User: What shape does this take?
Amino acid sequence: MKKSRSGGTIVNIIFIIIGIAALILILIPVFKSMSLDKKIEKANDNAKIIYDGAQKWLDETKLQGIVLTASSTTTELHFKSENASSLKSDMAAENDFIIMDLTTHVSKKFPGGWYAVVDPHEYKVVYALWSESEIQKDMLNKIGDKISQKYSVEKNGNVIGCYPISSGTYKE
Assistant: This one.
């Protein structure tokens, strides 16, 4: 006696396709999360490079006897990269003659925009930020009160790294 198998193979194929689709739907968020974790790790690593370079610049500045601010009320100086590929800062808003130059302290191939906040009296970096693109003023306002957080992810997916890092997280 012969058994008919024609109906069973199509049903089997449909179940296989449904199973593969379900696996894909389950794995997509896992891969996205892994990708974001890698971007965050890279951004935080790059923020640490800026932090270390800025601290070296501050150490040299102090050795040269350069006064960062004459005001005892100024507690922070803010330095922002000129553009996303520059290792020189714009002039500090609080002191219009100081430009932080990290070219001798950071690899010339270092990409991305950066921002460093320093204590001008202690010659210490308070924190540093790094982003794949230029850091805009409106980004700083969003990050300013969240700076103790681990990272910020912008709407376009651009990650802003921070150093030093706390255990918190912030996503917009």
